Amino acid sequence: MNPIPFNWPGLAGRELDYMADSLRRGHISGDGEYTRRCQQLLESAFGARKAMLTTSCTDALEMAALLLEIGPGDEVIVPSFTFVSTANAFVLRGARPVFADVRPDTLNLDEAQIERLVTPRTKAIVAVHYAGVACEMDAILPLARARGIAVVEDNAHGLFGEYRGRPLGTFGVLATLSFHETKNITCGEGGALLVNDEALIDRAEIVREKGTDRSRFFRGQVDKYSWVDVGSSYLPSDLLAAFLLAQLEARAEIQERRRRLWEAYAAGLTDWAAAQGVGLPRVPSHCTQPYHLFYLLLPSLAARQALIASLKARGILAVFHYLPLHLSPMGRRFGGTAGACPVTESVSDRLVRLPLYKDLSADDQARIIEAVREFGETGS
Ligand SMILES: *Cc1c(COP(=O)(O)O)cnc(C)c1O
C-alpha cells in the first residue's frame, strides 16, 4: 500500500504563475509587488494595523523581542508546551523564559497560573493558540494590562482562528504567523509579524530592514537611507511571497478541505476514543478553530508509542510533539525541573498527531481511521 506521509505541501494552483510573474517583473528581493499584496490581504483579513512578511515565524518572534526591548534580567512567560522558538526568540535577547503549564482541555497557556509567575521583571506573556484554538484572552489581557506587561500572540497555528468572533492575531500588541511547510498556508519557509500597536510600526520597518530607514527612503520620505537602529534581515524574497499569495488567495478552499478532513476524523473516531479512554481535541464554543491539527491523547506513553509503531507498520506516519521546554537541556538551565508543569509533562507523553493536509484523499483518510480503530480494538 502507498505510504501516507504526515504532511504534504499541496499547491493551491497559481503558485508557479505568480512566481514566473515575479521573475518577469525583475524584482525578486524583498518588498516587491507580491509582498505588498500578501500584506494587504493579511491586513484586510485581520484588521491588523500592519502586516509584515518575514522569513519565518521564528524571525517574527525575534522582531517582537527586539521591538519590546526585551533584555537581560527580563522575564517572559511562555507555555512549556510549545515550539522552541516561542521561548528562544526572547532568550536571544538575554531574557529568562518562565515556563507556565497548560490547561488539560485546550492544551493552551493556563491563565490561572499566570498571576503566580508574574514578578516585577515580567516584560511579556506569549500566548500560543495551540491547534489554533484560542487562549482565554478575556483573562490574559486584563491581567497583563493591569501590570504593564505586553501580550504577544504566537499564532503559528491559528491563522483564520477566532476568539469570540474576533480573529486571532489581533489581540496582542504583536502577533506572529508561520507559513512553514507544515502550516495550513505555506510558502515553504515564511512568516509574518502583525503589528497592532500603531506606535511600533515605524520601528518594526527599521528592525526588519537591517536597522535602516530604507522603507522610508523607498516611500520618498527621506532622501537617503542610513543605519538608524538595531535590526536584521527579516524580508523574504518576493518569489516566496508570490507562492504565498496564491495560497492565501485560495484560503477558502484550503480551509474548507481541512474542515472536512478534521470533521471526518472526529466522526470516525469519537465513539472509539470514548470506549478506549482516548482524548480528542476540545474546541470551546466561543472559539472558531482553523483545523490546523487533529490529535489523539492516549492513556499512556506506552500506548502512544505502540499506536505510532502500529500505524508505521501500515505505512502511515503519525507524529508526536512537543517535548516539554522546561525539561529540555536549555529549559533546565533556566531552572526547569520535573513536576513543575504536570499537564505539559503528561500530555507530551500521550499526544499523537494524525496526518492532516489539504490533499489527503478520502481513501487514505479512511485507511488511517481504520488503522487507528483496529489498534484500539486489538489492544496492540
Ligand atoms: C511552527 C511554529 C513556530 C515556528 O515557525 P517557523 O515559521 O518555522 O519559524 C513557532 N511557534 C509555533 C507554535 C509553531 O508551531
How would the global form be characterised?
globular
**Coarse structural class:** alpha/beta
Small molecules in complex = pyridoxal-5'-phosphate
How much strand?
5-15%
Rg on CA atoms, Å = 21 Å
Span of the ends, CA to CA: 21 Å
> Percent of residues in helical segments?
40-55%
Low-confidence stretches: none
* H/E topology pattern: HHEHEHEHEHEEEEEHHHHEEHHHEH
**How confident overall, as mean pLDDT?**
96
How is the largest sheet built, in terms of strand order?
1-9-8-5-4-2-3
**How many strands?**
12
**Biggest sheet details:** 7 strands, mixed
Number of helices: 14
Question: What is the secondary structure topology, with strand pairs?
Answer:
Blueprint (H helix, E strand, L loop, with lengths): L14 H11 L7 H14 L3 E5 L2 H11 L7 E5 L4 H8 L4 E5 L10 H7 L4 E7 L8 H10 L3 E5 L7 E2 L2 E2 L6 E5 L12 E5 L5 H8 L5 H5 L19 H12 L1 H26 L10 E2 L6 E3 L3 H13 L15 H5 L8 H9 E3 L8 H17 L2
Parallel strand pairs: 2-3, 2-4, 4-5, 5-8
Antiparallel strand pairs: 1-9, 6-7, 6-10, 8-9, 11-12
Helix pairs in contact: 1-9, 2-9, 3-4, 3-7, 10-14
The chain binds pyridoxal-5'-phosphate (PLP).
Pyridoxal-5'-phosphate binds next to helix 3 and helix 4.
